[in-house]
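Propose amino acids for all 129 sites.
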């Protein structure tokens, strides 16, 4: 792609599912990957202000701690399990992989954009804020 129509990107919405058996969730972040721009980043809502309405007994501290490392995974600066050595595409796939844990990724979607940073902000506003 030459950029006249935009650059292809993939994104996933991150959600917190406090009680997996109930399948209720709150969207808490977005991860966006644009290969052409060598861009992988995440925007996360660490406050999760809506989660207590869904599950008042949920301990937010460990969830916040796990969510806080996602931008470091995107940047390749987190040194766990050699994930920092993985290419951006593999880090995105790992973050977007289906999971049955409290923090889950929605199915990945594709789109076109000119500015991945701006698109990340837009998607965060649409799905999380």
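Proposal:
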């Amino acid at each position: 792609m030459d950029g006249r129509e935009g650059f292809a990107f993939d994104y996933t919405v991150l959600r917190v599912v406090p009680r997996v058996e109930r399948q209720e969730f709150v969207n808490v972040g977005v991860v966006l990957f644009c290969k052409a721009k060598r861009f992988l980043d995440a925007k996360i809502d660490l406050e999760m202000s809506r989660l207590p309405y869904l599950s008042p007994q949920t301990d937010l501290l460990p969830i916040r701690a796990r969510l806080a490392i996602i931008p470091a995974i995107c940047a390749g600066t987190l040194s766990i399990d050699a994930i920092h050595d993985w290419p951006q595409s593999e880090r995105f796939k790992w973050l977007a992989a289906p999971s049955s844990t409290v923090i889950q990724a929605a199915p990945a979607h594709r789109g076109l954009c000119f500015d991945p940073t701006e698109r990340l902000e837009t998607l965060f506003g649409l799905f999380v804020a």
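The chain has a mean pLDDT of 91. Helices lie at 51-54, 60-68, 70-75, 88-96, 116-127.
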